[in-house]
Amino acid sequence: MSLRSALANTTARVIHSSASIPPIRLCTQARKYATEASIDSISKPSSYGQPLFQSHPHLLKRDELTPGIPAEEYERRRKALIDSLPPNSVVVSVSAPIKYMSGSIFYKYRQASDFWYLTGFEEPDSAVILEKNSTSRGYRMTIFSVGKDPAKEQWDGARTNFQDVATLFKADHAQSINDFPAQLRSLINLYSNVFVDVQPRRGVRSPKSLLKYLSPAVAPRSEYDSILESLSNSRRKPLAPLLARMRATKSEHEQRIMRAAADISGSALAKTMRFTRPGIPESALAAHFEYLCCLSGSQRLAYVPVVASGPNALIIHYTSNNHVVKEDEMILVDAGCEYNGYASDLTRTYPASGTFTAPQKELYSVVLSVQKALIQMCTESHRLNLYELHRKSCDLLKQGLGQIGFQLRTGDLERILYPHFLGHPIGIGKSPPIQLIDYLAS
């Protein structure tokens, strides 16, 4: 037994023997399905590359592939996508890269949203190919991943073996990611319509950037480039717009997760407001919010939070959070958690001292009345889209501000006071793309 294993086992025995210490239930919002007895029977570390019912029954139900989402829902998503495509079509989607802060210091991994939406597979260095065919299922699915590698797993944790990948994720085949370039090259020449997307990057985008989300160690960059260059513009079709429209409509399972994410963020923000006092650093409020979200089961924040005191709130993406809150200042907090892959996003403004000054209350009341009026319009019967709601928000704000003494010339409101948009959709990630002209629907 290694020294590290011996220390871990000794620590576990000490903790287990401390029966006199009452259990602390911290994650009050976390999903707990397993009994204490079944949790005790779970072996550590897991042999899978992500939480599954077999390894994490306290997080997932038996029929769920990811927390809150059944395996059958992923199957329905793929079927709906394939059914929308013309004959002789193939879909190619790849995982997100591991992102690094500096050198070999990596961030906590987050899967590419579209890839995860189709597969539920959370391991890096992976890809999926969906081939439309005439079977009852309607397609053939191949997942590519790293597979088991004991030497690498000692450093980075478990990966799922190919047999389990095929079984658990309902793939027809599971292969090594090393086979992906050759498989892709042979397949794309068989299909008239190749639905795939160039991954976003800073600077000029081109077809050559498609699979650079995969680790450079998997295969030479030039091999990917040559594969993509073999695709004519007439055969290469964008995948993202199709998935964006699908992702815009949330299932009942997705809605439950999103409500839980909103509840976690809302509770954390309310408690952070009560924690606020003059003299406290903005960074302490940001940390308090994140701590409370994690305590309630959130896996990460959905984005870098804005905690802006006083004039700092005039900077839309103020994420420095490095000033001290002063007496009589207003504080703007724009923050949200991610829970089981789904983001929440809240923005609230409140007085640091707990009491509004007269001018603060007057201005706050105008914004609040506009917000309440717009919420009443967010129904299917109103037949409004996001762009139309934004225009109504501008009209109502201009009217309300005029009533309290603002003398706004044409364009002043959106140029100076309200240069951003009313809002944006949320779901898997903070801003899945959607057409602003689509009407709101339940």
UniProtKB/TrEMBL annotation:
It comes from the Eukaryota. One of its GO terms (biological process) is proteolysis. Residues 69-205 form the Aminopeptidase P N-terminal domain. GO terms for molecular function: manganese ion binding; metalloaminopeptidase activity. The keyword Hydrolase applies. Signal peptide: none annotated. Its cofactor is Mn(2+). Keywords: Hydrolase, Manganese, Metal-binding. Pfam families: AMP_N, Peptidase_M24. One of its GO terms (cellular component) is mitochondrion. Belongs to the peptidase M24B family. PANTHER family: XAA-PRO AMINOPEPTIDASE 3 (PTHR43226:SF4). This is Aminopeptidase P N-terminal domain-containing protein.
